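are you around this afternoon, could really use another pair of eyes. what follows is a protein written twice so to speak, once as letters and once as structure tokens for the fold. i want to understand how the tokens follow from the sequence so walk me through it. anything you notice is useful, everything is just below.
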Amino acid sequence: MINLASSMLASTARQWRGAAAMVRTRQPEKILELYDMEGCPWCRPVREALTELDLDVLIKPCPKGQPGHWEALEQASGQRRVPFLVDPNSGEQLGESEAIIAYLHTRYGKGQPPRRTPAPWTSKLASGLRLARGTRGRASTRPAAPLELYSFEASPFARLVRERLSELGLPYILRNGGKQQLSDQGLPWLRPGKGPYRPLPDTNRAQLQEKTGRVQFPYLYDPNTEEGLYESRAIIRYLQNQYGQ
């Protein structure tokens, strides 16, 4: 309970940025790639923007003290510093949070970042509340194919899973599922509206419902074992048993 409570406080510190999303019914032709470290205060605003723009992204975690994807990052950028974005659709490769966010909004959003954003120090506060979880590497075995995680940045439950994925250095495709309509609000069993829940067509939420029969975050799918799981605790236990050392 304390773990979840501090995750909720971290989302509150960031004013729940990375919860709402625009409606995107078609993803870019080629998936974006982000060298990232969950818990890094400079990476968090980039992931918030990816949720708000409803963009899928291949996360390549770079935890401290473990190989992760540091060598590939250094080859791509010339240095070991996250976040770093690679867009194979345009050939752009960018470091620095503000530059990445501006690029994402210009190319995939409405042309400019939101005017009101939480103060930068709140991202450091959020990391402090989580005791920098997601930054320290754990020994692991890398899967043959990237895992797939349905998540949105502000979700306190999904954060717990992203932290463990980051610590293990496991690459994963992040399917963002931010809230796009009134009926998306709240926990799955407390959503407003009459009748059965219906996500907007052709969105990641609709894809998740079609795949599993419900929409709940986080949801992990492992193509290496064909295992699909809901619930943070079950997912973290699976990740540790399957890929931890």
About this structure: The chain has a mean pLDDT of 94. Residues 156-168 form the longest helix (13 residues). The chain has eight helices and eight strands.
